[in-house]
Amino acid sequence: MSAIEAKLKELGIVLPTPAASVANYVGYVVTGNLVFVSGQLPLEDGKIAVSGHLGKNVTIEDGYRAARISAINLLAQLKAATGGDLSRIKQVVRLTGFISSAPDFTDQSKIINGASDLMVDVLGDAGRHARISISVAALPMGAAVEVEGVFEIK
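RESULT FIELD:
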């Protein structure tokens, strides 16, 4: 068991089967030593765990949880991209978080911390990354959050 798998187990995280693409795209692309993972929604058991708009009908705590679930789904895609070998992860390069929110909502960074904190909790210093967080009017399936990522692998 790799150190990353051991850390996931310690945190009580079981990576799900990666979500299948629902349109004309793939879950990830590997080019050179980079993996670009498509946006991941807060899916649990095939259903959106947190839906709605931050600053309207979704709390900061639930938004944080949505970003964390989305990050778990990023790791599931990354596991598939590495042939099941998470020890190949060298660095989280960048995360982009999309937050479905009311026009006056300004706490995007607090929401995407759910994804950022998870990456550091699981990967340590290799989980530290650049980041973008963007408010949007709506996301697929009514999700409150979507997170995509770029990762360097060995």
